[in-house]
Amino acid sequence: MVSDKFFAIVAGVGPGTGRSVAIRFSEAYPVVLLARSPESYNNVVAEISKAGRKAIGITADATDESSITSAFETIKKELPDFKLAATIYNVRPNSRPSRKPFLELTLEDLDTSLNGNIRGLFNFAQSILPLLLGSVEHSPQPPTLIVTGATASIRGSAKWSVIAAGKSGQRILTQSLAREFGPLGVHVAHAVIDGGIDVPDATHYPRNDGTPDGRISPYAIAESYWYLHTQHKSAFTQELDLRPFIEHF
Amino acid sequence: MVSDKFFAIVAGVGPGTGRSVAIRFSEAYPVVLLARSPESYNNVVAEISKAGRKAIGITADATDESSITSAFETIKKELPDFKLAATIYNVRPNSRPSRKPFLELTLEDLDTSLNGNIRGLFNFAQSILPLLLGSVEHSPQPPTLIVTGATASIRGSAKWSVIAAGKSGQRILTQSLAREFGPLGVHVAHAVIDGGIDVPDATHYPRNDGTPDGRISPYAIAESYWYLHTQHKSAFTQELDLRPFIEHF
Amino acid sequence: MVSDKFFAIVAGVGPGTGRSVAIRFSEAYPVVLLARSPESYNNVVAEISKAGRKAIGITADATDESSITSAFETIKKELPDFKLAATIYNVRPNSRPSRKPFLELTLEDLDTSLNGNIRGLFNFAQSILPLLLGSVEHSPQPPTLIVTGATASIRGSAKWSVIAAGKSGQRILTQSLAREFGPLGVHVAHAVIDGGIDVPDATHYPRNDGTPDGRISPYAIAESYWYLHTQHKSAFTQELDLRPFIEHF
Amino acid sequence: MVSDKFFAIVAGVGPGTGRSVAIRFSEAYPVVLLARSPESYNNVVAEISKAGRKAIGITADATDESSITSAFETIKKELPDFKLAATIYNVRPNSRPSRKPFLELTLEDLDTSLNGNIRGLFNFAQSILPLLLGSVEHSPQPPTLIVTGATASIRGSAKWSVIAAGKSGQRILTQSLAREFGPLGVHVAHAVIDGGIDVPDATHYPRNDGTPDGRISPYAIAESYWYLHTQHKSAFTQELDLRPFIEHF
């Protein structure tokens, strides 16, 4: 029996991009929200439920293989007949050193970046790609994996070394997955988010502050991700950039 | 008195991308179709009119300043109270030498590529950018210029020298316009079309032939262009790629 | 009879890069200096001759096919038994508009950039590539074509539109030639010169002024070009960047 | 008292690039060779010593902080009055999975790549950058750090995911270091080695086999590295590519 029921996963949910993406995809699918602590997803789950749509929050750490395995067991129990339609990898490293001179950084700072950006995506992709492959034939849209990148994904600016190492490795890993899984029918895309996100706590991106639309609306990111998910398989986008109209680049 | 009436221009209309884009944008705006000969746009104008929407065909050559000037005079007469919401530059050089050894090419071959890809866009952009700037305040979507690129826009493959010179110059010209006019509220985007277009006459791109969705659906390109046009100004895409899922890249 | 006598051509000689490159290559080969007027090369020819080495100045305009044809006839007369070992395309467009808002530019400004950067290189390459191919078997170093690029070759900054269109088209044309002629034994390389050149008249690049080595020494460029020329054919460089240590990039 | 004695370090020595680079730099400086086992450097140390030049082999693992610390203590003892002029990071991950479908890879495969390519460079750079900074004033050439990259540094090909993640992260980390330390006088460069190396054991790169110069001569790489080291500080190269003339790219 072929299931016509599909769900989506958003890994890395907080008050910004993750929340908006979860809300947007919940209009079409039940959504599973993954975050390292319930505080990160509880409000979003409540918000989606209140709107009469389905959301499930699961505490999980993408950088931990057993945590991911256990999360997927929970998913199987909660959504037994559902197949995976879309996944967004939006994990931000646990704590990230801001812009810092290289000689003041520690190996721990580097590992935080490599873990969240590369190892977490690796773990996560190993779990979800078989599920996406299993949805190719019947999914309403081409099964999709979208990864949230940043300016540092394509540029090693001075003093951004550890973040740049993690984000650029993540980007090229995503590109390799696109080349391997695209021909199998899975759409793997990468978005270079070039600018600050307009969330209350986003105080560490002071650029363009005070200008209307000087920061990226997380809803606008969510719209772009939804658009990527709905692209026809004869015209997949592998990468796009997103930045405020006033951003210097 | 502020006009709330907006129109779109598609420069470079034929049976492929231009036709699909014109049809897609005609759902929202009256569309002006530019081509070097009426045969290129007559059917598309008829198709749009038959669907009860408005389309105007104008014979013009983007590489010729006076031809462009005259086209915009016609537009002013035909759509006197309308403002420009969106423009797509989709012009293909008049005749393009296919893949050819460099020493067999002539300066004329090069000029054909530079004229259609760079000089035509330059002329066209000089005419439409003041109009788009004039629409920033009231346009339903951020006023938009979208340029159709190709694989050769980012890569100088062996024996594609003249096309690559023209397309890459066009791409970087577009990028410069994005950086100058973005902060003024105009969305300038470039699409790297990486694959053959699925039109009856596209016999010169034999790649992926016979595979369903092995060629790009021009409707899928039109959908992406429409999506670019509707992006919120806090999250403009400057460049995206579009390719069939099975394309090697 | 195989000639063991080789010469070099520097197209685009002035007081900066062209002069230094001509002097550096004259240590190994007789050099032909091309410029649009004798004032540009007379001093350099005198300087090289005074040092006991051979230099020939020829007035020519790379963007003019017949001028290039005539220059090569002169070369044949002056250096009848010599084969071509190396060529540097260092032509700067005749007059270049500095950084300028797009809507203040004219088609003439664009043509100046396209002519000097793309059409001139095209003409020149059509004349010298057959000569370089003819030198593959016996040249002391792999026959070489080096093209001088700039920051605008890889980036369309705001208000640099016409220069960026010309330089980026030139770069990708060079890349295409590298891919076509590399496997035939000709080394085609492109240098992205990212910074102001330290010549007396270079007053239009005020960046880093006053800092020792804040501008690029043209001798340093010449050394890099010579190095590119001497690379073993198992390890050709297609592109390198050159910038002052203090340059922001 | 200012030392006028300088030395070089090559991290990652085997029968290919590391050996050739060590030999080349030993012509100018005593060289320290680092490798995970003495078998990797013993022959090279003997070869350099036999030629009457100085080489010191030290067993060390760049991915292990304490191993690196201990190596630098040994260096201090062996070359007490010497300052660091140049360092090459040429470490290859301990064991690398060849081209492999993503779903057959393990987190261990990924970690091998991240450790050797990114974490090892991070550790190593933290130790050598203070030494290079200390040499800026008196070094005969600008103090230099060169990192050996690969095709995977700029491209995530299908089935090369873990190598591409490590190499691309390494490349952008290097770029960030170039931007931070260049203005302080340290030359940080990255070489994209695009092709197989011509060493007896390089059986896993069968491309171009049988063609003279179809594989990269490690001596040619060494010459390029030496050239990078000697560049004037008004014209640093941050990145160059190196590939056999017949390589498709």
UniProtKB/TrEMBL annotation, chains A, B, C, D:
SUPFAM superfamilies (alphabetical): NAD(P)-binding Rossmann-fold domains (SSF51735)
Position of the signal peptide: none
Gene3D superfamilies reported in the protein's UniProt record: NAD(P)-binding Rossmann-like Domain (3.40.50.720)
InterPro entries, alphabetized: NAD(P)-bd_dom_sf, SDR_fam
Pfam families cross-referenced by the UniProt entry: adh_short
The protein, known as: NAD(P)-binding protein
